[in-house]
NAD-dependent protein deacylase (Pseudoponticoccus marisrubri), 233 residues
Amino acid sequence: MTEKIVILTGAGLSAESGLSTFRDAGGLWAQHRIEDVATPEAFARDPARVQAFYNMRRAQAAEAHPNAAHLALARLQTTLKGRVILITQNVDWLHEKAGGIALHMHGVLSQALCAACGHRWYVPDEMTPDEPCPACGAPRGRPDVVWFGEMPYHLDLIDSHLSSCTLFAAIGTSGQVFPAAGFVREAQLNGAETVELNLERTEISGQFQRNIFGPATETVPRWVDSLLEDSLY
Ligand code: APR
């Protein structure tokens, strides 16, 4: 079978680019309540507050630079043309800034979505609470991110990748949010080798055949070099 690598990334990959994670000390969910800024009900109740939260995160993401881990993953994708699938939970676009191509299962901050007609458009900076949709004109524009209680994007495509990969890696994710936290089991059931790269042990570390601990900017480039030296790939 042709070797195929599926890589799931989380907020820890962008931590060294200066973007807060969610559950580390001082993380986003220590500063803001999920029910105030990351649910459809919060947006219906107070769109100004939710848009301000995402405007702040969009501005930070726009300022951020890809780090050595993003660049190494882009190099892996380029070298192993078509055999490396990047699935990210992150709503920054640092994989793309590094030259990679990622499936954004939680959406991406650089895009808006019209809650009335489903139209999507590029958002360079701020969104207003009643952002008008450029397609239908309704004042229903929202950040194109998946909120708690909503279905993540691309799940069918992700399932098909998990069922046909020979290696699954999770990088910089705490493994506390499903369905992403269940991907390792799904890949393992299909016979894939599994590896976790993280700063420290997570709730799902025991489910991986191999764990590599350390900051992503150190561990990911070394791991990518080892893959590219490996005759299998
Ligand atoms: N290098 C490697 N791993 C790191 C680093 C680093 N420099 N810094 C932090 N980490 C690890 C932490 O140890 C933790 O396991 O990154 C992980 C961050 O976990 P979370 O903050 O929970 O982020 P994530 O797993 O991406 O959250 C998943 O939850 O709130 C939702 O939609 C949100 O996409 C997010 C999802």
